[in-house]
Specification:
This is RHOMBOID-like protein. The chain is mainly α and about 325 residues long. It contains 13 helices and 2 strands, in the order ββααααααααααααα. The longest helix has 26 residues. About 40% of the residues are buried.
């Protein structure tokens, strides 16, 4: 019988019609519960509630400004002209762990590179990011498990925050966008490195390209940190080549043979390009993070070196100002 297909991937048939050299007893594909993804969503929601409680808009608002949804009292939101995303003030975000370069370097608060990943600028920001986390996170975690997806999420968030401090040094940056773009980058890496496992490759590739292009385009607007997106995406892409590499489709483990002494098909576990991508990605990740931290703590202003790079983060328009909190 031919292969069966699921979620765009080729899988071995479990209908008893295995090739003679493969044992039908052992189930070779394992799926995991998306524990990290669901826990991360719950944690982000709880932290946003804590931030809004600390914000206490009615106690800090200056007339004639008025809090949005004032009936929520302490949990009401900042005025629309201060935060159009239905959220807290910039001062609250900074106090609660928002990312700012001078605080990381001058005040030695490096923990902000990670704390900012768990903060959100408003309800709209939170809902969009958590929806994306569920879409990308559940599928990856079901296949690769809590450890690998957890590492992808956290390290991609760190990579996004690091690039943001280098290019977007004068704004407060918050949000899980860098980590989420890391999951998107890892999904693309899985498609590339596990190419033989997919049967509808072109359509999946174009879907990922379109999703990434649309989100990078949104990042050209204010209050969205495109450098965090780019840093997270690149980090996740490289990590994906390292953490999500599978044996090529059709590879047979010795333990899967009906008779361990039988000669199995001659097929290498990994293809050459998979190994090349694995090694190159490790080297690029190590080099990138070392260079990034050296530049950060030596106060290197990359915008002075690349003056047009700031346009990647925000394109000026008569409709908005680019001097805003990023998320």
């Amino acid at each position: 019988m031919g292969d069966t297909f699921s979620m765009g991937k080729s899988t071995s048939p479990y209908n008893g019609m295995f090739p003679s050299h493969i044992s039908p007893v052992r189930k070779r594909d394992r799926y995991y519960w998306p524990i990290f993804t669901l826990a991360a969503v719950v944690a982000n929601v709880i932290i946003f509630i804590i931030v809004m409680y600390d914000n206490n808009c009615p106690a800090n608002i200056i007339p004639p400004d008025r809090c949005v949804l004032g009936s929520f009292r302490r949990m009401s939101f900042q005025p629309w002209n201060q935060n159009p995303l239905l959220g807290p003030s910039s001062a609250t975000l900074q106090r609660m762990g928002g990312l700012m370069t001078f605080l990381v370097v001058d005040q030695q608060q490096g923990w902000r590179l990670m704390s900012c990943v768990w903060l959100h600028a408003g309800v709209f920001h939170l809902v969009i990011n958590m929806t994306a986390l569920l879409i990308f996170g559940i599928q990856l975690e079901k296949e690769f498990g809590i450890i690998r997806v957890g590492l992808l999420y956290l390290i991609s968030g760190l990579g996004g925050g690091l690039l943001s401090t280098l290019f977007n040094s004068h704004a407060i940056s918050v949000g899980a966008s860098g980590a989420l773009f890391g999951l998107a980058g890892a999904t693309l890496a899985e498609l590339i490195t596990n190419w033989s496992h997919f049967h509808n490759r072109c359509s999946l590739t174009w879907q990922l390209i379109i999703v990434a292009a649309v989100n990078f385009s949104i990042g050209l607007m204010p209050r969205v940190d495109n450098f965090a997106h780019i840093g997270g995406f690149i980090t996740g892409l490289l990590l994906g080549f390292v953490l999500l590499m599978k044996e090529q489709y059709g590879y047979v483990w010795q333990r899967d043979l009906v008779d361990p002494n039988i000669e199995r098909p001659m097929k290498r576990r990994f293809k050459v390009y998979q190994i090349v991508l694995f090694v190159a990605s490790i080297l690029l990740l190590i080099t990138g993070f070392i260079a990034g931290f050296i530049a950060l703590y030596n106060n290197v202003d990359i915008n002075e070196i690349c003056r047009w790079c700031r346009r990647i983060n925000c394109v000026p328009s008569p409709r908005w100002s680019c001097n805003s909190t990023s998320g």
